[in-house]
Specification:
The chain has about 130 residues and is mainly α. Helix content is about 90%, strand content about 0%. The radius of gyration is 20 Å and the shape is elongated.
C-alpha cells in the first residue's frame, strides 16, 4: 500500500510542478502513474477473479449473473478512470457525458436481470 501511495503522491507533486510549463507532460505523468498503479494491483485483481470464478462454478446457474457483474464492474472502473482523466484535462462536460453513457450501457445490460427478478417475485406472489 505504501508503494501505491508513494507513486500517487510523487506523480501528483511532479505533475503539479510541470503543469504550469507543459500541460501535456503533466497528463503523461499522471497516465504513467496510473499504469504503474494498475500493474502493482494486477495480481490482486487476478486473485479476486479466481475467487469469483470458484464461486460461480459452485453455484449452479449463477455464472451468467457473475459474468454480468464483472462486466458492469469493468465498465464502471474504466468509465471512472476516463472521466477522471477528462476532468484533469479540464473537460468536465466530456467527463459527464462519458459517465452518463456508461450508466445507460449498464442499465441496458442489467435489464434481463431485472426481468428475472420480477418473474421470480411475481411467481412467489401467486
Amino acid at each position: 500500500m505504501t508503494e501505491l501511495i508513494g507513486i500517487s503522491l510523487s506523480a501528483l507533486i511532479l505533475a503539479v510542478f510541470v503543469r504550469d510549463y507543459n500541460k501535456t507532460v503533466s497528463i503523461i505523468i499522471m497516465l504513467a502513474a496510473s499504469v504503474m498503479i494498475f500493474i502493482k494491483i494486477a495480481s490482486g485483481v487476478s486473485d479476486i477473479f479466481a475467487s469469483i470464478s470458484d464461486l460461480s462454478s459452485s453455484v449452479e446457474g449463477a455464472s451468467s449473473y457473475i459474468r454480468l457483474m464483472i462486466k458492469v464492474l469493468g465498465i464502471t472502473l474504466i468509465t471512472q478512470f476516463t472521466a477522471d482523466l477528462c476532468r484533469d484535462c479540464g473537460e468536465n462536460a466530456l467527463a459527464g457525458q462519458t459517465e452518463t453513457a456508461a450508466k445507460i450501457i449498464v442499465i441496458a445490460m442489467i435489464l434481463p436481470l431485472f426481468e428475472t427478478v420480477i418473474k421470480i417475485i411475481s411467481g412467489l406472489l401467486e
